[in-house]
Structure formats: structure tokens, C-alpha cells
Specification:
Two copies of one chain form a homodimer. By secondary structure, chain A is of the alpha/beta class. Chain A has 22 helices and 16 strands.
């Protein structure tokens, strides 16, 4: 097709007859369409703009879906979706929400995995390649990794394993010189050396793992990319193709402000200015802001206070300006959650007061370090969890409600759930001030409300529930964000003449047995938590009260990988609205 | 001291005045003492014999404990313990059990961490070095890693992070050309290149991470080691010292059979022959043997069946002879649990029937992969857990009872607990035969008994409890190994005229609600599991029955990092003897 429109592209076969001039035109059309959608819709902007040409070249050279491509993190796969039967989700506003932001086998046979956590693509692809070899098949297997995710431990494990395959195994390293924020780690000096020597310098990280190596200086040039991919197609050895791309290419604001445009909401296409309204100065703060402000205050008072992130400084409220203000007391290890936790352990051992912040969904990558290097070794480091909530991210790959079951069952690890901003600040200050215990403070991805009913404690080292309202017969125990909902339920009950005991448990990892003992003769004890019921806080209460007359009801979320769920539908499904909780209490009282 | 005995060495200061001739004598005396203890006592033999000289040289050159040494895995620290105030634990049989097999801060200020999982030392040391820099101190910080543990993801993350310190940071890589078994992974070709070029070859893995690099060809020669460590002492840059050591040095049998002597029980010092009696051929099999036999049978029937280990083939029963028999259908990725799980995911996606086996304590290193790359993506891979039990390993670093809370709370991951050998075989055959679900089969570190009462199911995809004995009023639900103990308790109850309902739940990750509904009117339901109560199977039952009249009692283990506990004391403490369970049932019936 000499003349074509984007709508003509139904499968990659439709581009394989094109010449490079046509492909270049295709890239321009795709980028233009992406810009239009992203400016109106938001999404992972920089990663996708930078990969338009590489994705076209991959589908042009390789015989997908017979040849297999695993995209790491897969937040850079909008161009891939455009070429594989989902163009209208990028050209027609009515269909913008038809696709997820990640590869998803439910959408297309060209999508091998549902991936949103980083660094796993190489190891997954090694498995696909090994399966191919055992079957005696011959297709190409390609892993696409980069954009900061090369520093995750499993990426190195995958490189190490893939190198031993002795057969076709192609790793495309998308080097856009960035992670979400700037890159950190020794390997990035090596990538810089390789870029500055047009791939000729030594040492060479990839060769040291056992790979053949190709460098593509112009990673947004279709000629160069096609030539490089053709050179490695049907290779019978593990090989790395290192492509030098520009994150955010085609949107000047994104090229200039790569961190801000890694992921963004709607923006003005001309200026790049965000379209959402700025919150007024008087608005309640979010937990990331509260965290950063508290940390900067702590840092100034104590040079031993250090904040740590694994590649997501913005999630912790540490904007570039705040990072500058923190100086050496803010550390970004890059996407390397395990190292972040161990660094905190070493800093604590060395007498510092480290505080590491993680997105709920990502901290699970460091479970072994939380268990062995923090809890078992009782290192007094503090960890703050962000987006630990049903009201946080709702992609199946980024769910924030498995962390209670994960962390609160580790011995000697204190897990706290603040119910409001004052309590959060109190917990964080206390955690930094003490030197006995490792502490986790779990915050939801929500505005941090003030709550004058809540009395921050002076010591959180032992479980001590706050009885916010004393009632009888029925107790409502609401952990973290759920406290506010339980308080509303208590209000509703009061209107019906039922005075419930309302409890803020503060801690999720151990029980205040004295307070629970006082509830044994109640008719019902209802717990609610912003996490899965299985393995959670409420089940500890149910177990403890198992032989007591009181009935126990555990409310929380189902043990399911929900995807792009509607928040209020889920809340209702789980019986977690104030009215539902009040009704449940009434029915258990009968 | 010109003449000295081992007993004269109280601290490293006592060796710092020695000359190399004396140190060499010291090494010989230490090795001889180690051999005497290990032949009588067992332990990590090869790793320690290979590191005698390096540990002496480290304490000789560095000013410990001001200079800090973090030993990875720390199973090679017997020589370190000998030099740091604990000599009698290696020279006096009466004190052999005074020390643990790993570094432990409770024992000595020279021990920085309690470590038994691999690969974390570099990242921990990076934290110590950063703390030092923030304080403006100047001591040396040294991480000692190797013996297979360099391939764990967090080791690479640690190298990547440590490279950016820009200050003193010394990583000693103990290259004994082995893991527990032979090494696997691309980096080992690089180490081989470096050895064969006396450290001069390119590419160089460590330089590519940003480290200066020194190679020590004779890593059991004190002259060479001292010279190398002196060269890097007080270095102001991150530096790797790559030492080429011989695992098992000084015990010919261990030098020849490195895998067998990585860890071993007592042996004949002259021949190396094990001193424990061979089990008679008619003895019940252990789960590792059962696993390997079942897998070899499956492999022969189906070329798509692949067994995977992360560096512990022996734990899976795959002796060198069985590995040879399995050929390409047995894969060892080295110590890289994350890659092992992802490799299984890729193999399953590619149509193979992968089965990966892990030590309970180590599988937690791959939680994110279990969650995201297996369960979320519903890849029908099978995982067999070994030593998942209070009756498994009892070092605080190697506990096998946290895995139920960890895995059984992941959505869409089926966790099964066989009660006997026939059920295990049935579950493994079923898991391999089906292509819908990811399955975990959890086995204890115990002899696999036969139990004619147990009816293996034909399908384990849905929770379906087996009611082994129908009673009334009280139900005993015993998971996995605990089933046998519950059966004994039921016998005791029967003698007292109480007919208990005895249940084998088979599955730990979901409830058979129909069966539980039938128990709601009971007086008591008692659960027992071979794992911590918190987050476990029993708490799911307690939660489900929270509004039912039946009292629920959850038996299991405490959420604690127990260390070298006595098995029967723990069982009694937890109320898990048959008599205690029977007594508890009687008391709940009153």
C-alpha cells in the first residue's frame, strides 16, 4: 500500500511490504496519534514516544506472533498494540479505554504476558526459548528491556540464565538514559561508555554475561534498527542489541522533562502543561507530600536520617527540588527493591536512621530482604508503603492490597496503619526516633484527612488499640483508611439507637489482646481492612476470638487479581460501604 | 608468639604480629582442627576448608572489628569464628555446639548479621559503607561473596549500587568454581576467562559494573592474599578482589566430590565415607527420592516435562546420576530463584510441563515472580516445596514454616499439602497432567509414610476435603504432616469415647465451604498446620466459621524467628502432640 491510513494496519503483516520511507511515515502518523490520545487521556508518555520506531522495526523484521517478543514492564507497548489489531484504541476516542496500559494475553495473541512489574522479561523469554529448543522449533525469541528496568535483580538473573541457552535468544536493551527519574547504578556508567564509543568500548556488561553484542547509535532511526534486527534475526547464539533511544521523542516538553512525562495525566499538547487543575494551597495533603515534608524536617534536625527509593522518587513526594534540598540524605538506587531494603539494613546497622518508601505493589519484590535482612536481624529501619489500598492503582499488575498479608506475617516486623495525617506524622516521627524495631507504615493512595477523634500515641512499639468510641454489644475495628468508613457506620448505627464500640487498631501485625478480651462477651466484632481478607489483620482477630461467644465478621477484599475495577462497585461488592457495615452489624446483633 | 597453639588465639589482634610462615602454620592447625570437628559433627565442609587462608588474611590485613566484613550466606565462617573468640567451639568437642553455623551478632561483635540466605552481602555492605561516609568515618567495608551466590539477583543489585558509592568498598569474590553443585550461568564463563588470563582478559564483569579489579591466582596462598588485600586496603574506590580458591581443600574426598561435601554429616576422615548408616532398601522413602523417581518416570513418558532447580539439585533428589538420566529435561539455573520461577513460567507458556523444586525457606526470594509471572498469568507450572515443616531445618535463617502464609494468600495459586507418599505422587502426577492451574505441592522434610486411610483424589483443582473418619461434635482438620498427628489424637479421643470427625483438607489456599458448613453446628473445630498460625490455613477456617456456633481452635507455630530449637519442645509448646490435641478437644467440648 503506497498510500495508507493507520486504520489500514490490522496486523504486522500489513507493514512488512512497506519500504523504509513508508515506515517512517507510519511512525510519524503513529506518534501523532499517540500524542493526541495521550494529551487527552494520559498514560506512559515518554516510554511510548521513545519506542515507536523500535516497535515498528521489531514487527517489521520479526515474524510475529510466531516469533515471540516479551516486553519488559510493558508500559511501552502502545505502539505494539497499534500494530497488532488494536489501532482504534489509539485513533478513536470512543475506544481509548478498550485496551489496558500493558500487554495482556486476553487482548491479543501478540501479547504473551500481563506484565507491569519490571525486570522479568529476560528470564521469561529464556523459558520460552528453552521450550522452543526442547520442541525442536526455530522461531526467534526476543526480550525487550530497559527504561531503568535493567537494574532489577531478576533482569540480571535472566541475563545470566539466558546466556547459557546456546541458541537463538535476542535481548533488546532500550537505553533511553533514564529510569522513571534519572538512572542510578554502576551499570549506567558502562552503558554511557558503550554509547560514547559507538559500542566498541570495554568493558562490556553484556559480553561479560556471555552475549554477542550490537550497538544501534540511532535508536529512533528505522534504517539503523531494521539493519540491526536483521543482523541478529535467526541468530543461533544469545545476543544483545543495545539501542540508544530518546524518551519522550516528538513532544518537546517530554524530551525536556523526562521524569515528569514518564507517566502523566492529560496535558496541553502545545505547552506540555498539565490540564488538571492545581490543588488549592489549602487542600488536604496527600501522603507523598506529607512524607516528603516530614522527612525534610527530620533530615534537617538529624544528619543521620536518610530517605531511600528504588526508582520512584516521585511516589515518595521527592520532586527534583526536594531531592536537591535533601542532598546526600536522599538515595535512589534505581529499580532494585532488594538492594533498597538491604541498603536500609546496612544504614541502620551503621547507626543511621533510614526510611525507604515503596509502592505497595512493588515492595513484594524484596520479601526475602524484609524477612531476613531487616526483621530477623532486627534492624531499626523504617519503611513507608504508598498506595496500599483498594483506592490505589487498579491495574491487575499494580494492585495495592496484598501487602498486609505479606508483611504483617513476618515476625518482628511492626506494621502500622495510620488513619489520618496526624497519626501518620506521629508514627513516622516515632519510627525514626526509636532504635529498636523495624517498622512499616502503610498509607493509602488517598488524601490524608485530619481527624480530631484520633489520638496519636507516643509509643507504637506494642499493640495498643485506641477505643475511639465506647459502646457495647458490637465492636467495629477499622484499620487504616477503613477507620473512617467504620466511623461513618458507627454514626449510622447510633441513629438507629445502637452504640457501637469504635476502634482504631493502629497496628496490623499483632493483636492488643487486652482490648480484644474486653470484647469477648460482645455479640459481634466486625473488622475491616483495606486489603485481602486472607492472611490479613481480621483473620488474626477471628482466630484469637475463635473460642469466645462473640461472632466475628471479617470485611476486606477478595483474594483475586482484579483488573481495572470500579472503586465503588468493589466497595459495594465487599460490603464495605458505611450503610452495608451498619446493616451487617444490625443483622449480627439479632 | 613464635610458638603458639590455637587456644592462644583469642582475637584477630593475636595473629597480626605473626609472619607469613606462622600464619601458614596457623592455617594448617585450623584446617586440621576443622577436619576433626567436621568429620565428627558434620556441617558446611567444602566452603570452610576452602576459605581458611582467605579468612586469616582478611583478619590479618583488615583492622576488624573496626573494619567491617560481611560474609555472604556465612556458611563459610567457621575459620572466622575460630579467630574471633570462639576457638573452643572448633577444638573442644564439649563446645562444638556452642556456635551456630552462620555469623550471628548474638555471638560476637565480629559478626555483623545473622545470614543464611545467599547474595545479600554486597547490598548490606553498601549500606554500611554509606553510613560510614555520612558519618565521615574511614574504616574499610568488605563484602565476601561467592561459592555460587554471585548469581542471586540481589547480588547484582548490590554490585550495581555499591559501584556508585565513590568511596572505600571492597568486594571479595570467592571463586571456587562451584555452587552447591556445579555452577550454571553466563557469568561463570567470564570468571573462567578471568582465571585463564590471570585476571587480564576482557570483558570483565566486575569492571563493567564500575569496579577496580584485582585477581588472586592462588587464593589459598597467604602471601598472595595478604598482598592483594593490602593493595586494596583503604582504597577510596569500589574494588573487587577475585580470589581463586579450592573448595574442600585439605580433604581429598571433598576436593574430589565437591557437591557431596558442600554440606555433609559426619564422615570417616580417612576415606570420606559417610558415618551414618545407609537406610535399608525397604525403608520408607524421603520426599526428595519420591520426587526424583516420579519426575524421571514422567520425563520418560513426556519429553515436555522439565525439572528446575535454583542451585540445589540434591534437595530435589536429583543426584548427579539422576541428572545425567534426565539430560536436557533437568535444568539448574544456579542460585537464582527468581529466574527459576520465570523460567518455569516461560516453559509453561511454551507448552512444556515444568516442575520447579525449592527449599521452603528459599522460595520466598521469588515471591514477586510467583505472584506476577505465575499466578496472575495463570501459567500451569508446578512447584514442589521441600522442608516445609517445623521438622525441617531449625536455624533461624532456614526456617520452613513461613511458606503457607506466603504462598497460600496469592490469588489463583493452588497450594496442596500431601499427607503421605501416595497422596504426594497423586498430586504431582495430577499437577503435571493438567494445563489450567499453577500448583504448589508442599512437602515436609520427613520420611514419606504410606497411609492406607488416605484416598488420593483424581482432581485437585477445587477444594475437596477428605473426611477420613466421620464423628460428631468435634472436628480435627490436620494439614499435611499434621494429619498424622491429628489421626493419633482422634485415636486417643476414641479411647475416651469421643468420636471426632477427622479431616484431610488436601488444599491450603481455599476452603471447602460445603464441608465446613457441615461443621457449623459442632461444638469445636480444631485445625493444625505445620506452619505459622498467622496468615495460615487455620485462620481462614476461623474467619469462615466466625459467625457459626462452633468454637474454632487454630494450632500451629508461633510467628517467631526460632533458632536451633528442639523439635519436641516446640511441638509441646505449641500444643501439637496427639495427647495435647486430644486434651484440648475434650476441654472445648465441655
Amino acid at each position: 500500500m503506497k498510500d495508507f491510513s493507520l486504520e489500514d494496519i490490522k496486523t504486522p503483516a500489513d507493514i512488512r511490504e512497506m519500504d523504509v520511507e513508508q515506515l517512517t511515515r507510519l511512525a510519524a502518523m503513529m506518534r501523532s496519534s499517540l500524542l493526541k490520545k495521550l494529551s487527552a487521556h494520559g498514560g506512559h508518555i515518554g516510554p511510548n514516544l521513545g519506542m515507536v520506531e523500535a516497535v515498528i522495526a521489531l514487527h517489521y523484521v520479526f515474524n510475529t506472533p510466531t516469533d515471540k517478543i516479551v516486553f519488559d514492564v510493558s508500559h511501552q507497548t502502545y505502539p505494539h498494540k497499534m500494530l497488532t489489531g488494536r489501532m482504534d484504541a489509539f485513533t478513536d476516542p470512543a475506544h481509548y479505554d478498550d485496551v489496558t496500559g500493558y500487554t495482556n494475553p486476553a487482548e491479543s495473541d501478540y501479547d504473551l504476558y500481563s506484565l507491569g512489574h519490571t525486570s522479568s522479561a529476560v528470564a521469561l523469554a529464556a523459558g520460552l526459548a528453552m521450550a522452543r529448543d526442547l520442541k525442536g522449533d526455530k522461531e526467534n525469541v526476543v526480550a525487550v528491556i530497559g527504561d531503568g528496568s535493567l537494574s532489577g535483580g531478576v533482569a540480571f538473573e535472566g541475563l545470566d540464565t539466558g546466556a547459557t541457552l546456546g541458541s537463538n535468544f535476542i535481548v533488546v536493551v532500550n537505553d533511553n538514559q533514564m529510569s522513571i527519574a534519572e538512572n542510578h547504578g554502576g551499570i549506567y556508567s558502562n552503558l554511557e561508555l558503550l554509547r560514547s564509543t559507538n559500542g566498541q568500548g570495554e568493558p562490556n556488561l553484556f559480553r561479560s554475561f556471555g552475549y554477542d553484542y550490537h550497538y544501534v547509535r540511532y535508536g529512533n532511526d528505522l534504517h539503523s534498527l531494521i539493519e540491526a534486527f536483521r543482523a541478529v534475526k535467526d541468530s543461533t547464539r544469545p545476543v544483545v542489541v543495545h539501542i540508544n533511544t530518546m524518551k519522550g521523542m516528538g513532544l518537546p516538553a517530554a524530551e525536556a522533562n523526562k521524569e515528569e512525562f514518564h507517566y502523566s495525566g492529560p496535558f496541553d499538547l502545545k505547552t506540555g502543561a498539565p490540564l488538571h487543575e492545581e490543588l488549592p494551597q489549602t487542600a488536604p495533603k496527600t501522603y507523598d507530600d506529607l512524607f516528603a515534608d516530614t522527612m525534610l524536617r527530620q533530615m534537617k534536625a538529624n544528619p543521620g536520617v536518610v530517605a531511600i527509593t528504588a526508582g520512584t522518587p516521585g511516589v515518595l513526594g521527592f520532586t527534583p527540588a526536594r531531592r536537591k534540598e535533601a542532598g546526600r540524605q536522599f538515595v535512589d538506587v534505581g529499580i532494585a527493591e532488594q538492594a533498597a531494603v538491604d541498603l536500609a539494613s546496612g544504614l541502620a546497622k551503621g547507626g543511621m536512621r533510614p526510611v525507604a518508601g515503596f509502592v505497595s505493589s512493588f515492595l513484594q519484590r524484596a520479601y526475602d530482604q524484609f524477612s531476613q535482612d531487616i526483621a530477623l536481624n532486627r534492624q531499626p529501619a523504617t519503611f513507608v508503603v504508598f498506595y496500599g489500598s483498594m483506592f490505589g492503582m487498579n491495574d491487575e499488575t499494580h494492585l495495592g492490597f496484598f501487602d498486609i498479608a505479606l508483611l504483617a506475617n513476618i515476625p518482628d516486623l511492626l506494621v502500622l496503619a495510620p488513619t489520618c495525617r496526624e497519626e501518620f506524622e506521629s508514627m513516622l516521627d516515632w519510627a525514626i526516633g526509636q532504635k529498636e524495631l523495624p517498622v512499616v507504615i502503610r498509607t493509602p493512595g488517598a488524601v490524608a484527612v485530619s481527624n480530631p477523634q484520633i489520638e496519636p500515641a507516643t509509643d507504637y512499639s506494642r499493640p495498643a488499640y485506641q477505643i475511639v468510641r465506647q459502646g457495647s454489644e458490637v465492636a467495629l475495628i477499622g484499620a487504616g483508611l477503613m477507620f473512617g468508613i467504620m466511623a461513618q457506620a458507627a454514626d449510622l448505627l447510633e441513629k438507629q439507637g445502637v452504640k457501637a464500640t469504635l476502634i482504631n487498631p493502629r497496628e496490623l501485625s499483632a493483636l492488643d489482646t487486652a482490648t480484644l478480651d474486653s470484647l469477648k462477651g460482645y455479640k459481634a466484632v466486625i473488622t475491616a481492612e483495606d486489603g485481602i481478607i486472607d492472611g490479613g489483620f481480621g483473620q488474626k482477630v477471628a482466630s484469637y476470638l475463635g473460642q469466645a461467644p462473640a461472632k466475628v465478621v471479617n470485611l476486606g477484599l477478595p483474594k483475586e487479581f482484579l483488573n481495572r475495577y470500579d472503586y465503588s462497585e468493589l466497595q459495594t461488592r465487599c460490603g464495605l460501604t458505611p450503610q452495608q457495615i451498619a446493616d451487617r452489624a444490625i443483622s449480627e446483633l439479632k
